[in-house]
Structures are given as structure tokens and as C-alpha cells.
């Protein structure tokens, strides 16, 4: 239950401040005051723990996948923002300085300006942060600039939030809870330090060089890198890397790409990159010899914990083939005799990548290869339309394929539809691995 451990760990961290507050045994106030304080404690803890859900920590992403971590990060941040916004509104006690005899602020809510302003700043920044994340595409800000602003604003929200808790919080005056806030703040700071300073520094010892860039169909490129250091990069077929080509090691110009090569094929790694936005549009112009940096491996789209699967079904949409061909290549290179099926959907024939190699794998490895085109050319003999439920039924509604592993990668609507069909066919969810290429 790897996901269960993560959920328990998460709950333990975000509920710890509430637990410490409760353990203080202070005289209770009205229900609205307690609710308001509770939401404030919960929101602050959730915001601090968000820094561990940056999608860069293998202990987290390796268990549930980066896309699940990133979507949880987004959802939990929005929930924390709602709690934080409700927190000042719900207080029902008079907003006045506490009488001198009321040392635990039982009768009033702390509203002195020095206690309040860090909270107001944190709240405004948090609202801006979540708004900018939801409306990122509409802002037109370059992704890398947006990421930098996102990180800086998040760090400020955390800092001002903890400052406010320590100054204004009734329960946070307790040394135990105050220490917990400072501890969580330090962990959040270290998470940022690790991702943006320490990990890049470590990468300096492992430089890569681009050895080949070749066109592989419609606006799609194969980029091959070779290590300029002794040794290899350990990874599993199907995992992905944060790739920085031609920028300084500390640059935020790095993007996630699945590794399309097979680990047992040697030291080189290969990527299949489809032009998408500002950065990838320039892929074809990368010159061999260009310096590159890799932060890897990440991702859970691997056969690692599935030795007992009796076959492997790979279902790809467009450039979603990248991790799946890595898996297929590895199965072939290691002489794995389990049966394989590759269902590969594209819009038109010009988008089919590694066509000849796939034909070769179909002949030599016995992979059942099913091409699906929604805009087929004249004389096309493969499947047409979408990767539909009936097509999936045709191939997988068989008792001997229920114990297979199903590995999916492609556009989110396709993944949702394929996953629903497989579940309807009785494939257990534990046998379905999927990864999407967008975090939005
Ligand atoms: C786990 C994973 C594996 C991927 N594997 C592949 C692959 O093998 N081949 C492939 O062609 N594409 C892959 N992608 C998609 C690829 O990362 C984006 O197409 C690429 O980052 C776009 O960069 P850009 O500079 O052209 O786009 P930009 O113009 O900078 O941004 C366009 C959009 O791309 C996304 N994006 C850009 N930069 C990042 C980033 N650093 N992190 C996350 N999202 C970003 C955002 O949604 C952004 O709005 C993968 C994505 C993920 C999350």
C-alpha cells in the first residue's frame, strides 16, 4: 500500500498542529472561534507540507506518480486557500485587545496590527498564488517565469503565515507548537533549497552532451544524449527526466520528458520530443555537442513491481509512445518472453514515430501492433477512428489477459476513456498504470 503510507504521512503532518493545540487543554471558546483557529492551523500546515509535493522527491513521486502528486498539490493548495480565507471570517468573539487577565485570549480575538499584518500579507499572496496557478495559461507568462514567481510567492506565503501564527495564534504561543511551525518552515525551505540549489550543484558532476537530433515525423524529434562522466544513469524503462538543454545548470529552463531508450541498451539516453510551446519548438535547432543536464529518474510508469503480470499491454496516444517504446525496447533487449500488445493512436500517418522499429519489434519480439488513425490516408489497412471501447474489448476482453499489466500514456481524455473501459472489462485498477503529459 505505497499510496496509503503517503496519505497517512500527509495526514500526520497536517493534523499535528491541531493535535498539539488540542493537547494544550486551554479553556474552550465558542464553536466559531475554535473552528476559525482550527482552519487557520490546518491551512498553515497544509501550505507548509505543499513544499514536499513539488513533484521532485522520488520518495513521493516513485510511489504514486508525478502527475498524481502534482494534481494533489494543486487540489490541496486550493483547499488550503479556502480554509485560510475562512479563518479570519469565522471568529465570533469581540475583535479587541485581550484584557490583561485573559492571558490565553479566551474572550477576544487578537487584532493588534503587528500580529495581524503578516497574516493579511500571507492571505493576499496566497489568493494571488492560487489565482495565478488556475489562470496560468490566460496570463501569457512564460512557464519558466511563472514557475519562478510561483516558488517565490509560495515561500513568502509560508514565511508570513508562520510569522502570523506565532504572533497572533492563541495555540501557537505554546513552545511545542511554535517549534513545530519553525520545523515545518525549515523543511519547506530545505525542499526549495534542494530542488533549486543542491540538486543542480550535484548535477554539475554529471554533465551530458547532445549527440544526435533527428526528425521523427510531424514536429517530433528524437534527441539522444551521452554522458560526459564515467558510469551510467540508473533508471527504469518508462521513467522520465527533467531535461535542460543548452542552459546553465541552475536555469529554470528544464522540462519533463519520458526516456524513450531502454536502460540495458547502453549509456546513451533518448527522448522523443513533440513541439508544443516556446521551448520545444526549437528542438530541431539543437546542435550536436550542446551541453545538457538531466534530473532523473522520476516516475512510476515502470514494470518494476509487476513481475507477476503475465503479459504487457501498452496503449499510447501520440507522443505518449515515448515511455512505452522504452518499455518495449527493454522487454525485447532483456529477452522477456511475456506477450505484448501495443495500441498506438495518432491523428495521421505522418505522426507515427519509430514506425520501422515497431514493425521490426512486431516481427522479432512478437508484439501485437495495432495502429489507429483518426484521419487515415487512402489505402490504410490499420484501425481507424479513436482508441475505442470496442477496439479495447476486441483485444483485452479475454480471461488470459486479465492478469496483464496495462500501461497507458497519452492525452488526458484518451487516458480517462481507456481506463474506464479497462475497469469495465474487469481489469483491477492495480494492474493499470497511466501517465499524462500535462499537469493542468
Ligand atoms: C511526466 C511528463 C513526461 C513528459 N514526457 C514527454 C515526452 O516524452 N515527449 C514530449 O514531447 N512531451 C513530454 N511531456 C510534455 C512536455 O514536458 C511539455 O510539452 C513541455 O514541457 C513543453 O515545453 P515548452 O517549453 O515547449 O512549452 P511552454 O511554452 O513553456 O509551455 C507550454 C505548456 O507546457 C507545459 N510545461 C512547460 N514547461 C513545463 C515544465 N517545466 N513542467 C511541466 N509542464 C511544463 C505547461 O503546461 C505549459 O503551459 C511530458 C510531460 C510530463 C509532465
UniProtKB/TrEMBL annotation:
A matching Pfam family: FAD_binding_8
Compartments (UniProt record): Membrane
CDD domains: FNR_like_3
EC class (word): oxidoreductase
Domain FAD-binding FR-type positions: 203-304
Annotated InterPro entries: FAD-bd_8 (IPR013112), FAD-bd_FR_type (IPR017927), Fe3_Rdtase_TM_dom (IPR013130), Flavoprot_Pyr_Nucl_cyt_Rdtase (IPR001709), FNR_nucleotide-bd (IPR039261), MRET (IPR050415), OxRdtase_FAD/NAD-bd (IPR001433), Riboflavin_synthase-like_b-brl (IPR017938)
EC number: 1.14.12.17
Membrane-spanning intervals of the chain: 39-55, 75-93, 113-134, 146-166, 178-199
Cofactor entry: [2Fe-2S] cluster
Keywords assigned by UniProt, alphabetized: Dioxygenase, Membrane, Oxidoreductase, Transmembrane, Transmembrane helix
Membrane topology: Multi-pass membrane protein
GO molecular function: nitric oxide dioxygenase NAD(P)H activity
GO cellular component, one term: membrane
Protein known as: Nitric oxide dioxygenase
Species the sequence originates in: Roseovarius indicus
